[in-house]
Design goal:
It holds the Pfam family HTH_17. By secondary structure, this protein is an alpha/beta fold.
Length: 311
Amino acid sequence: MTTELSYTIEEVSQFLKVSKLTIYDLVKKGELPVFRVGRQMRIAANDLDNYIKNNKTNQKTTLPASVFEPRRSDPKETNHVVISGQDLVLDMLGKQIEKNSTYKSLRSFTGSLNSLISMYNGECDIVSLHLFDGDTGEYNLPYLKKILVGHSFILFNLLSRKAGLYVKKGNPLKITSWKDLEREDIQIVNREKGSGARILLDEQLRINKISPKNINGYEHEENNHLSVASAVSTGVADVGVGIEKAAKIVGIDFIPLITEQYDLVILKTPANERLIRIVTEILSSNQFQSEVDSLGDYDTSRTGKIIYETN
């Protein structure tokens, strides 16, 4: 068997100096072939070379206009659906979409705010959100109204879950609230900019009049809940922000401080009518809700409810 060099989506995005969601968009359109190894998609080096060669102009490597301009929905495009977000439930949703339609799901593990901006730019189809707004106490809708300007959209509830602080087993530093984070004896581990957990922390710091400059470890970033929980578990940090499930997986204590509304948004376009119908049916089904309930630590009492819909 011939061993062929290949790259991950992230490696290709770094090489081409574009976002990962831009690469997913190229995959969705069939412009960049991929193959799967388990859950991970990879791009063969030869296919990447061919893509670059095919898009050269005047001997300079340039990307087509579609990379830099918002994608316009076209029913003739390949039948891929890009689902952006990190929760395991999104993998379950992708499998159900494939089971109940001819769509093929592509997963992007990108934070809520960055995913929403990419949706505005036409680079993904389903975005999961848990964006807390400190001024209203609401989740998601205040951000949607500001970012998806000029777009019609529908917002579904996917589930509710507890968010709060990861602390070491037994909570030796007696951490109980957001205000404890500015203590000099506490070192935190943060999430990346654009993630829902990072926005929750920043909004709580703002509400409680705490300067990030007074938070030890504020610049230490990890890219997912499990990495944050692991940093606390191994003693790299004393506390981190995340969801309850990751704390149980890693085996540390969790201090719940807020109930997150974890939602899905889809743009309302003629090309998305079928997708919206399929997602509505899946979220409302007893089968899907039972599968989510079996994971534990999730509340599905509002799953499938339309939170907001524009005309």
